[in-house]
Amino acid sequence: MASVTNRGGRWQIRVTHKLLPDGKFFHTFDDEDSARSYAQNMETLLDRGIVPLEFLEKKTRTADPILEKILNNHIPRAASTDKEILALLVTEVGKLRLSQVTTIWTDEWVRKMKQEFNLAPGTLRKRVESLARAIDEHVRLTTPEGGVRLMNPLRFLPKGYSLYKEADANVLEKVDKKSKRDVSRDRRMEPDEAARIQAVLNGEKREDRQRPWPVDPAFKLLHELIVDTGLRLSEAYTLRVEQYDVAKALLNVEGSKGWAGVIKPRVVPLIPSLRVLLSDWCKDMKASELIFPYWDGTKKDKKGTTNRLSHRFTSLFEYARTPNFREHDLRHESTCRWVTMRNPSGHWIFSEVEICKIMGWTDMKMMLRYASLRGEDWSSRLT
Fold first, then answer.
1. Which of 134, 140, 157, 299 is the right S-S partner for 161, CB 3.0 to 4.6 Å?
2. Does the global pTM surpass 0.90?
3. 89-105 tens-digit pLDDT
4. Is it true that domain 191-382 has CATH number 1.10.443.10?
């Protein structure tokens, strides 16, 4: 049973349950919503036989490992995008023992990341989620069959925990810092910008420059492929000729966002103009050849290739005078092209589910995140 009480302007929860030491637990929150959310979650989990980690029995040091060991054990199985964060967490919190990761410590850690480190909400959430996943895995692997599973305190953080509140802003103001906010990108390529980029790729020199941007047919094709399919950069430059199904006008893509590096295959349709470009490019190449000449085919060279090509796209967009445009924005642009694409009769070609399949998403929320539609995309339907 859980209750929430206002005590001197703060909100205290009291949870009673037979699985808890002494049968009860108290904790105080700054606002009522956080207190009630925590109390409800904790009550639900206790009823399912799941106990918070702060009640971990410390009978042996083996049962209470340091976080460094937990994090290092998790790194080999973690997603590639998670490994750097996990390595950073080893230096930041690795000396703590598992039993020290309590709800009180978690609240203080979040406060410190905002008020002392002044991290952006997204960066803060990545740290919390990475540590939470590592602890979840440790608990899953070490809980004996039939034993009581311990609950991860990081999973009790209330909704919006990473957002800066007034108290955080007041502390930061004293040291001439400001609250950070989530920034979502919805940068589209305007028609005149698309024309300038094409001109640069074709070798047209800017009036105020001495030389044109270096012409590279392979890079021009890479740009066309990404903007007209929505492939991620690494999915594009690692393509081999055999992945292009000429008869079906499809690319068999080895998706790069699988858990722990597992490949998530998907098929991506090609618009007619891109089919012609790819067919001409690949006609004299062997099936096993890489379509693009930028990667040496080894895992070791992937990070370097991604960085080199990302910088090259940055250079292209700067030369083409497309301010604040990045290579990944091409994926936003491609999504919008799939969404607004119509057939000759004027009907929409693909549904939301089909576009998610093309882009490699399993969550429809990603569709809303990437569909950076312009106002004229809507108003044009009314004419």
1. 157
2. no
3. 999 999 999 988 988 89
4. yes
